[in-house]
Every structure is written in C-alpha cells, then in structure tokens.
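for the recovery benchmark. tokens below, seq after
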C-alpha cells in the first residue's frame, strides 16, 4: 500500500507544469541571440568582400602604384615649344615685312568700293592711292625681280610690277621708271624704282598720286594686309 502511494505521488509530480522563464530572463536571452546573429552576419559580409575584391587588396598593399603614377611628359611637345622659341620660318612675304612705297604716306583712296571722279563711275578699286607731289621717289616694298614695265595703255600710265616670289607681287602705277631700270633686274627692299608722274591716266582728276596694288597668286589683296596704312 505504501509503495502504491509513492507511485501516485510521482505521477502527480510529473503532471505539474514546468515553470516559465521570467520576463527579465527572456529579454536577456533574446538580446544575446540577436547580438550573436548580428556578429555572424558582419563576419560573413567581411569574408565575402575580401574574397571578391582581391585587386583592391593588392592596391592597398602597393600593387596599384603604377596606375596612380603620373603619365610621362610627351617629348614631342617639348620639341614643338623649342621650335616656337626659335621663331620658326614665316610663310609668305618678307620675313621682315614690307616697307612703305613712299617715304611719307597719305592715303587718298582705299582698297574696295570706289567712285572714280575722272570717269564718273563706281567700281571695285583694286589698290590704294597715295597722294603726293609729282617727282616723289617710289621705293620697292620688298626685294624681288622687275617683272614688267608696262606703258602701252595711256589710261594706266606707266606701270611697274615686281615679283617677290611665292606668288606675291607688287604693282606701282602712274609713275616714271628710274633711269636704267630694266625687266629682269633684281632690286632690294627700299630701292628707288621710279618717281611719281604728273597727274595722268584714268585717275588724273585725283591729282598726282601713286596707285599701289598687291597680288597673291594672281588675286588682288588689300595692301593693308601687308602695310600699316597710316600717315607717316
């Protein structure tokens, strides 16, 4: 009978419900589990990043130094600047520029649209007229060869053309050629090649003056491209 009672007691104890964790203990347990999960996630991410980016690791250790180094300077640039420092070779015309065809210059008519009071007509004036007294010396604006001394058209008067090379020529009209000047003769810059004639030809109403032209490759060019046209 006693043994039976002991068995009944054991059954009653087995049926008693287990005690639940208190609220404080449960909070600590959840917090601990959360921290452990976060730590595991951080470690996993760090391992993944280091495993997928070995190049960055090499650069950090000095493997990428050649990429960050400045590019070497281009030696061709140095050569170009050296050429510019020497001045180089000018293209076309004289390396020292042209001189004025007259010692004292006063512009009478510019290059371009023009009213010819002698002919009472308007047209493109292909040169510049410098007013001066008859007998004024006319100078070669640059070195060259006398290409022609033209006298066959009374309306043009005497016209001298100098070939300066490279397709560049200068023309002097309403002049009297200097004594001894001949076609084919070489002249230097500033040499006297003629004197201004008395008013004549198709511009005689403008009075005595030098009609001066510049052509480049057989095309008329404004003399102002080569000369500083102002009173001197």
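predicted aa per position
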């Amino acid at each position: 009978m006693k043994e039976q009672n002991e068995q009944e007691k054991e059954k009653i104890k087995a049926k008693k419900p287990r005690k639940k964790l208190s609220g404080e203990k449960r909070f600590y347990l959840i917090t601990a589990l959360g921290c452990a999960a976060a730590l595991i996630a951080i470690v996993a991410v760090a391992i993944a990043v280091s495993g997928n980016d070995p190049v960055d690791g090499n650069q950090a250790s000095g493997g990428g130094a050649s990429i960050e180094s400045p590019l070497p300077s281009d030696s061709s640039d140095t050569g170009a600047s050296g050429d510019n420092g020497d001045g180089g070779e000018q293209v076309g015309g004289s390396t020292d520029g042209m001189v004025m065809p007259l010692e004292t210059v006063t512009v009478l008519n510019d290059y371009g649209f023009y009213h010819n009071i002698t002919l009472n007509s308007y047209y493109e004036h292909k040169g510049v007229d410098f007013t001066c007294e008859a007998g004024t010396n006319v100078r070669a604006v640059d070195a060259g060869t006398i290409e022609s001394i033209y006298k066959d058209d009374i309306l043009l008067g005497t016209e001298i053309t100098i070939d300066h090379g490279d397709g560049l020529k200068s023309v002097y009209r309403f002049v009297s050629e200097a004594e001894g000047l001949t076609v084919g003769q070489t002249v230097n810059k500033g040499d006297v090649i003629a004197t201004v004639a008395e008013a004549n030809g198709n511009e005689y109403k403008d009075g005595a003056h030098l009609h001066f032209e510049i052509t480049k490759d057989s095309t008329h060019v404004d003399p102002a491209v080569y000369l500083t046209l102002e009173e001197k």
